[in-house]
Write a structure and sequence with these properties.
There is one protein chain. This protein is α/β, with parallel strands linked by helices. Helices cover 21% and strands 25% of the residues. The protein contains five helices and ten strands; from the N terminus they run βαβαβββαβαββαββ. Strand 2, helix 2 and strand 3 form a beta-alpha-beta unit. The protein starts with 8 loop residues before the first strand and ends in a 12-residue tail after the last strand.
Length: 213
């Protein structure tokens, strides 16, 4: 999510070590961590808390409209931790959601007018059926933009890697204008290793901790 200069270190990581620790603290403080199908396919993430102490793990959530992910292939569905797959309610679950441990579950969600999952219905399910209140969207920029467009984002933590040259860049194309357009206000920023971290929030919505770090 940031550019680099000629002297910058080529990195496979998207942030500094300090920022990676920050991400794991955020996971620890969340009820659930949500990603899209592409993130699962590209990164095979565990979405667990590993770099900081934690007594519990967040529920992992993935959005897979057509239930096309091979659940035998990815960590999320094979480590015995709680995972939810949200898919189109027109798709049968048989043969896909039956695989794996009893900690993996599936739920059908209506489609929106654009053909994707209705994210408002996803959020409604997470809150009313699962009692999940603090959801961390850790997917790519397309998924984040979809949540922003539907006014489903209360806070954004935007990490900018300033001194890293990426071997395989995947720009977010997010700017300060992006977040202000969707009604968020910049509360402040701080340095994290070689990165800059910005904290954005809905007006009149207090930050959980006065210390933004």
């Amino acid at each position: 999510m940031g550019g680099g200069n000629r002297e910058a270190e080529i990195s496979e990581r998207f942030t500094s070590e300090e920022s990676l620790d920050l991400v794991h603290r955020l996971r620890r403080d969340s009820d659930a961590v949500l990603v899209g199908k592409r993130t699962v396919e590209d990164d095979d993430p565990s979405l667990t808390v590993r770099r900081v102490p934690s007594d519990v793990q967040p529920i992992r959530i993935t959005l897979d409209s057509n239930l096309s992910l091979n659940t035998k292939k990815y960590k999320l569905f094979n480590d015995g931790l709680s995972t939810i797959i949200y898919h189109a309610d027109t798709i049968t679950e048989k043969g896909v959601c039956d695989y794996g441990t009893n900690q993996t579950s599936c739920e059908g969600i209506p489609l929106s007018n654009d053909g994707g999952l209705d994210l408002k219905e996803v959020v409604k399910s997470m809150i009313s059926k699962r009692q999940l209140k603090h959801i961390m969207v850790e997917g790519g920029p397309a998924l984040a933009t979809s949540f922003l467009k539907q006014d489903l984002v209360d806070r954004v933590i935007f990490i900018k890697a300033l001194n890293v040259k990426f071997s395989d860049p995947y720009p977010s194309n997010f700017t300060s204008t992006t977040f202000s357009t969707y009604g968020l206000s910049l509360l402040g920023e701080f340095k994290s290793g070689g990165d800059v971290v910005q904290c954005w929030s809905r007006p009149n919505l207090p930050w959980p901790d006065q210390d933004l770090t």
